[in-house]
Amino acid sequence: MKETLEKRCSPFEQVMRSRRVAIPSAAIQLSAEDQSTLKQILSGRCEYVPNPIFDRTDAETKVFAESPKVARPDTSWYHPLMESGSDTSRSKNVGTVLLTAAEERALFLQFNYCRYRVKKLRDRIGEGPINPDQARQLLYWHRRAEEYRDQIAQTNLALVLAMAKRARLSEMDFSDLVSEGNMALLRAVDKFDVSRGFKFSTYACRAILKAFSRSGVSMSKYRQLFPTDFDPKLERSDYQDRKRAEHEEECVDEVRDILRDNRADLTDIERSVIEHRFALGSKLATHPHAQPMTLEQ
Q1: Is the pTM here over 0.70, yes or no?
Q2: Per-residue pLDDT tens for 36-88?
């Protein structure tokens, strides 16, 4: 009975039950997507890069209102260049977005301030009950943090392609190399501390190249253990082919027996035609160069 009730509960209700708290009636009005997101926020890790500004009473004004506005980049160029990564002449300077130091600092402060607010709400809630207002605030700041994270990553996508063309590991496909670089870029966004005064591109390029180096070492070890290239044919069963060949052999033997015993009451001419058409019969079967003839022959 208990298992049946748990299956009927929504993800939000289940996480609330696991925390042993009451479910606020207004929180049930959240959509399924919001409930799933809220469950991830409450159960996952919550980190941010601290900054002295966050502890000020006017932190939100300093971070958002007094910071320069940064437009989202156009990334329509990215996928075609990733697919034709060997053509470096066409892709030179394409998709490169140059941010000023102030714009870059503003984006990272906004991103980490949103994560800071999520962390503070998580700490405030603790193991106690969560009310609808807290649920809405968690979703609001989490989504703003994800938006800034995506914007920073999209602004620096050209770094991944540049580093992938520079590394050009022979053991890895170019698209796999770019995928590994994208993951390294996201990790660099999460860990970068803008207050130290360095450009993000300097930090990200080193992180991406380090990720490529680790992937290259792992691939080399894999090649040593499994030197044979992947062949899709090795994963396909030959059962049907073997059964078909056995069936054809049985049919040939049956036709040969019919011809030998003349169970079909064939004339000499008919038997001769069939034997030459399919290279059957005692004379043709023992001939080393016996080949089936066409009907015209």
Answers
A1: no
A2: 898 889 888 889 999 999 999 999 999 999 888 888 888 877 766 655 554 44
Tell me how far apart the terminal alpha carbons of the chain are, to the nearest angstrom: 80
Of 240, 243, 270, nearest to 255 by C-alpha is 270
C-beta pairs of 14-19 under 8 Å, 24+ apart in sequence: 14/39, 15/39, 15/42, 15/43, 16/130, 19/127, 19/130
Distance CA 109, CA 118 (A): 14
What is the crossing angle of helices 132-155 and 157-167, to 10°?
50
Task: Please tell me the distance from the alpha carbon of residue 201 to that of residue 152, in angstroms, as a whole number.
Answer: 11
Query: CA 194, CA 51: separation in Å to the nearest integer?
Result: 9
Using alpha carbons only, give the angle 12, 150, 16 rounded to the nearest 5 degrees: 10
Q: Count the Cβ atoms, other than its own, within 10 Å of residue 220.
A: 12
Give the count of beta carbons closer than 10 Å to the beta carbon of residue 204. 24
Joined together, the tokens standing for residue 79 give 């996928």
